[in-house]
Amino acid sequence: MIPLRPSLLRRPREALLCSCLKPTLSPQIRGFLSSTKRQPGIADESPSGFHKSYFSANRLYDGPGAKGSFVSSLAPTNASKNFNFKSQSPTDPPASQAESPTTIGAEASPEELPHRRRKRLKEANNETNNGSGNPEQSIPLDASAQLSNFSSALPTTSLRRKLAAYLALTKPRLSFLILLTTTSAYGMYPISSLLTLDPAMTPLPTLSTSTLTFIYLAAGTFLSCCSANTLNMMFEPKYDALMSRTRNRPLVRGLVSRRGALFFAIGTAVTGLSLLYVGTNPTTTALSAANIFLYAFVYTPLKRIHVVNTWVGAIVGGIPPLMGWIAAAGQTATIGHDNWRDMLFSEGSIGGWLLGGILFAWQFPHFNALSHLIRDEYKAAGYRMMAWVNPARNARVSLRYSLLMFPISIGLWWYDVVGAGFLVPSTFANGWLVREAYRFWQHQGANGTARGLFWASIWQLPILLVGGLVTKKGLWDGVWRSIFGHPDEDDDEYLYYEDEEELEGENSQGQKSSSRTSPRTSTLSTA
């Protein structure tokens, strides 16, 4: 520490203030503040009058030598050459030890305007990304990370903190997507023709029973998803900590213990599977249990071994629509035709397989585009994803399965799952997806094509599901008949003639059998 000279301590307060502000103030202002007279022979630092830069609203465009300009604070080395103080107080330290005018100007400069600062940071970020060869920005936080941040901000003893932390274990957005695909397939199951003609003559369940089955299916599917996602987080917290997308998950941040997560996974699995078994059928329950096993114990460890994990994950995504279809088919199945073979491999199960095929094919353009955006983080965490193992194949697979959407959508119409009106929205959505997948393949994910494909996949799937529900086969026929109150007369006549033909056939067979037995009976009577 440099001791102060006694002469400085004995100086008046005004003179001491002037000496402190002397490097930053012009001689006129220093003379106004100081009670001492100006020394003769010392030239003024500033020209007479005011300069137009004093009134400049944007200090960024001031000259590079202007004291306090924004440019001088960014480039101190070049700007310092433009300053040349002609006078120096005897009490000031030497020029080599004094603060540079640039530093003083940066401290005295007014605060940068917010919109100027945002523009400057954005330009600097673009320059940095372009120089690194990765122009894509990081994707926003997922729902689990957002819930973890919300939970950590609450008091430790708060019940909401625990609920938010456990809800973050379920990956809410992913669970909701799976629930949407399952219930959409349930609602897309064809309406029986007998039900549209005369509901009183059919053994189909009533509306209340169908609604109850729907509730069991939705609750059981969601709880099963919660269990699978929790087990997935339990097996890879140390790898999640290496990625910005997953480092805020509750197990990484210690918001939930591993023991608590294990009990939560077991409880949700048991409850969900029980609801499916009681409310739907054993085949749907078995598919849900298989999905938990595939996702938690096959897909999760396979991510660090081979790129085939993407295909396993696609199978996991394709099973929920099949679950919804079989849950609806179980309500109309008769005794003897309700086993797993008839449910899965009969002619009536083709619609469920087609809906599952849509979700299977959709996984590739969606996930491949997403993984391309964070391919460096996947590589650093040790996950074997095509986005960095084989980027060219990653783009080809995305385009290939995007094209597969067209025949699958046509198959839904061909097998009378949906009406012909479904071809209009499906062609639009599939065409959009293929266009973005082609650009993604053409540019290998550069120029924002990965983000474009990702958002196209986000919108394409709801368009297909909602379009299928709106154009469901037989839906508008039932509405038409409910408005007019009775079926067409041609249908009644057709059923009437069909019944007469069956009765005539039975009578003719009875007469033939009686004629065959009559000779025998005659001989017996004569005997």
UniProtKB/TrEMBL annotation:
Cofactor(s) for this UniProt protein: Mg(2+)
One GO CC term, this protein: mitochondrial membrane
Compartment(s) of residence: Mitochondrion membrane
Biased composition regions of type Low complexity, renumbered to the chain: 513-527
GO molecular function per UniProt: protoheme IX farnesyltransferase activity
Region (Disordered): 82-117, 501-527
Family: Belongs to the ubiA prenyltransferase family.
Biological role stated in the UniProt entry: Converts protoheme IX and farnesyl diphosphate to heme O.
Protein name as annotated: Protoheme IX farnesyltransferase, mitochondrial
